[in-house]
Write a structure and sequence with these properties.
The chain is an alpha/beta fold and 392 residues long. It folds into two domains: 3-100 and 216-389, 3-Layer(aba) Sandwich (Alkaline Phosphatase, subunit A), CATH 3.40.720.10; 110-214, Alpha-Beta Plaits (2-Layer Sandwich). It contains 13 helices and 14 strands. The strands form two sheets. It has an eight-stranded mixed beta sheet with strand order 10-9-11-1-12-13-2-14, with helices on both faces. Strands 3, 4, 5, 6, 7 and 8 form a six-stranded mixed beta sheet that branches. Helix 9 (257-268) runs parallel beside helix 11 (293-313). The mean pLDDT is 97.
């Protein structure tokens, strides 16, 4: 029974892309930046070949890279315009976004906010790019006094709505975000509308795990093709949200990386035929955007410590693919995503050892490879590298 487990280490970039300067991301290298922390330790990913990837091996000169490794590895360039979560995941699934999603460095147009206020029945505060933790301190007190919603954005294509769970119940916040998603279409079709609930008392507010993302529906992806071909497509974490549910046959949310890993292992023990697609978001959300190098390093070290549990649960026909959706270098001045290559590490009983694929032209090569493994003729972007890594 063929199965693929696709894990996204959210934001683990491996070096600036040639066009990084166009995004003000010159010099970014998330993995190398994080490796400088004393808390960084990834011997299991080293064994699979992570540090043999082009653009990585040149940075880790202290490692013995003459010894072999147990997987097939490479790096992939982003062909889409953008560096956000939705763009990255969609490209992994075979969709090249030729136009970037709209961003709002000066806040959303008056007509958008007016329509949002009219349809939700609540006033909007802020309407500017802001740090998610700073915005609730700045506007949280006024929000609690008035019931107005905190609306903000970032360098990404997002419309974020923050509200205290005791002032605006979760279901009400979700309803307001659904309205925003209906409004933000066409010219103003942002990649994601995000519900950002928080708790606490001023000024000590804390965001909760009840976040919910509302993405645009993507065009045809490899997930749709797998579903149409009769395969299971299991989502863990925010995968369902990123693809607006399209092509997902079963989903489960996770509150953090630790739970996401446990849910993945639970699904590895279940009988299914197809793809299990996992997003581990803490690297990006908790550490990359907050420029927390040590926190990021600890999170990678934790994943690496759990990796043997994943590897030992793989069955004979299973394939494990580990990659990322963009960078988020926590050592730079910017707190935004960074335009970087992403790693691809592949392991399984039938996967060749010591294979360096070099550099692929697009994240979509992952989609093409997955579809070929399941004998589904690809109707999406990307070039399969299955023949280079698979042994019968």
């Amino acid at each position: 029974m063929k199965r693929i487990f696709l894990i996204i280490l959210d934001s683990l970039g491996v070096g600036e892309l040639p066009d990084a300067k166009d995004y003000k991301d010159e010099g970014s290298h998330t993995l190398f930046a994080v490796s400088k922390s004393k808390h960084f330790h990834m011997p299991n990913m080293e064994r699979l070949g992570l540090f043999h990837i082009d653009g990585v091996k040149e940075k880790f000169t202290g490692l013995d890279l003459n010894k072999g490794f147990d997987g097939s590895v490479g790096r992939l360039a982003e062909k889409s315009k953008g560096k956000d979560t939705t763009t990255g995941h969609w490209e992994i699934a075979g969709v090249i976004s030729k136009q970037p999603f709209p961003t709002y460095p000066n806040g959303f147009p008056e007509e958008i906010i007016d329509e949002f206020e009219k349809r939700t029945g609540r006033k909007a505060l802020c309407n500017l790019p802001y740090s998610g933790t700073e915005v609730i301190v700045k506007y949280g007190k006024e929000h609690m006094e008035t019931g107005a919603l905190i609306v903000y954005t970032s360098a990404d294509s997002v419309f974020q709505v923050a509200a205290h769970e005791e002032v605006v119940p979760i279901k009400e916040l979700y309803r307001c975000c659904e309205i925003a998603r209906e409004i933000l279409q066409g010219q103003h079709g942002v990649g994601r509308v995000i519900a950002r609930p928080f708790i606490g008392t001023y000024p000590n507010f804390t965001r909760t795990s009840n976040r919910h993302d509302y993405s645009l529906a993507p065009p045809l992806t490899m997930l749709d093709q797998l579903e149409m071909a009769g395969y299971d497509v299991l989502g863990v974490g925010k995968i369902y949200d990123i693809f607006a549910g399209k092509g997902i046959t079963d989903t489960v949310r996770s509150k953090d990386n630790a739970e996401g890993i446990e849910l993945l292992i639970q699904r590895m023990h279940k009988e299914f035929k197809g793809l299990c697609f996992v997003n581990l978001v803490d690297f990006d959300m908790l550490y990359g955007h907050r420029n927390d190098v040590d926190g990021y390093a600890k999170a990678l070290t934790y994943f690496d410590k759990q990796l043997p549990r994943i590897l030992e649960t793989l069955r004979d026909e299973d394939i494990l693919i580990i990659t990322a959706d963009h960078g988020c270098d926590p050592s730079t001045v910017s707190t935004d995503h960074s335009r970087e290559y992403v790693p691809v590490v592949v392991y399984g009983k039938h996967i060749k050892k010591n294979i360096n694929l070099g550099t692929g032209e697009t994240f979509a090569d992952v989609a093409a490879t997955i579809l070929e493994y399941f004998d589904v003729e690809s109707r999406v972007a990307g070039t399969s590298f299955l023949k280079d890594i698979y042994k019968v």
